[in-house]
Amino acid sequence: MKKQILVSIDDSYLDRIPILVEELRGKGLEVKHTMPALGVVSGAADEDTLGSLREVKGVAALEEERSVEIAPPDSPIQ
Amino acid sequence: MNGQEMAAETTGRFLVTLRDDATPDAPEVLSRALGIGETVKAEGAGLTAAEQPQDQAIVFERLGIAIVSAPPQQVREMGVAAIEDTDIITFEPERVVYTTETSAPPSRHRADLTWGLRAIGVETTSLTGEGIEVAVLDTGLDLNHPDFVGREAASRSFVAGEEVEDLHSHGTHCIGTACGSAMEGIDPRYGVAPGARIFAGKVLSNQGRGVDTDILAGIEAAVERGSRVVSLSLGARTVPGQPHSEAFEKAALRARAAGTLLVAAAGNDSNRPNVRNPVSHPANCPSILAVAAVDQDHEVASFSNGGPASAGGGRVDLAAPGVDIHSSVPMPARYEEKSGTSMATPHVAGVVALLAEANPIATPDDLVRMLIDNAARLEASADDVGAGLVQAPQ
Questions:
Q1: Active-site amino acid positions of B
Q2: ipTM score
Q3: N or C: lower Cβ tally within 10 Å for chain A?
């Protein structure tokens, strides 16, 4: 079962994001979006690969992506 | 009194602040303490220094302030006497003030303003957000809306398969509040920063749904473009004790380091007075300003999230108007009133643009300090409204 995840990159690895992204790919992350200015990479990964992704040097945190929702246009509170 | 005040141009008159309950007895207090012979009400009195007799005081009863003149040789003596009198709070020189406008205001009919704009002091500021880019990440914008004709605006969709065109209405409403125009015929005026450049990023679908990645992609684009503020009228409900997102916190810190401040809606999951839910994601991140909603009486809106950070939630930083807010929506409706912390958030984003215009080299941290310092204190708990009601710089 694939999970949509966000990977936060450690401050000291911000200058090596492309290398880090390749390493994450090698560990099974299907990269969706790399955001170098924010130091965040998003993508999809099998649940059983999350542990090894978290151990990649330069990964500060790994979390599951959330979805947000606003009320329909005619709702009294938005 | 500091050196700067000493250096200010003064009129030779003095302002005497009376204790609240001493105001009705102003003639007696002023006579006893300062030897004033006659006290007249401000209404009907000649107010210029030249017209005021030496031993006469003019009193503003509702303000509890009297204006007295003092001959130079008696200033010191009167000041000491005033300070020693228990019914007098302060005795200070009247200053000469000038407007900060560089050109005369237009004498033509001036449009009315929404209650929200008035509540945050937009009516009296000459700032417009000129030269400042405001990013609003939402459901997009009605690009053909007549109120936005001729506006400098960029747009981009981060939602797969959807154009920027706002088929929901939420985005057009939020952009209207932050950046709506002030041209003739728009009455009431509803936009805080009519001179700002707009970046309309679509991160929520026309159904009003979005995912973290698309929101982050929008933030990244805003940072790269040099937007000074990102307005996020969106959120996901949280439960007490839920930690904030590491990714959004890091993103917000890095955005701030690059010059971009993030503000987000505290969320609408409460039903006061019985239910008060914690601040939503991503507003619960410490480096993102969380905005609560207040109504026309400046009371916390029933739906507005909040609560003590000690209960394991994010902190509310500021409050802004968020009930019955009139703003733009896609044509043909053109305008609509909406309520929510979503409506409060762009008021703050607009004020950030005004502050950034007035303080071109201010960092996001500087702007946050100004927002907090300028906020009007409210009776409601800081847990619910933070530093208070956001105020436009004057």
A1: 138, 170, 342
A2: 0.93
A3: N
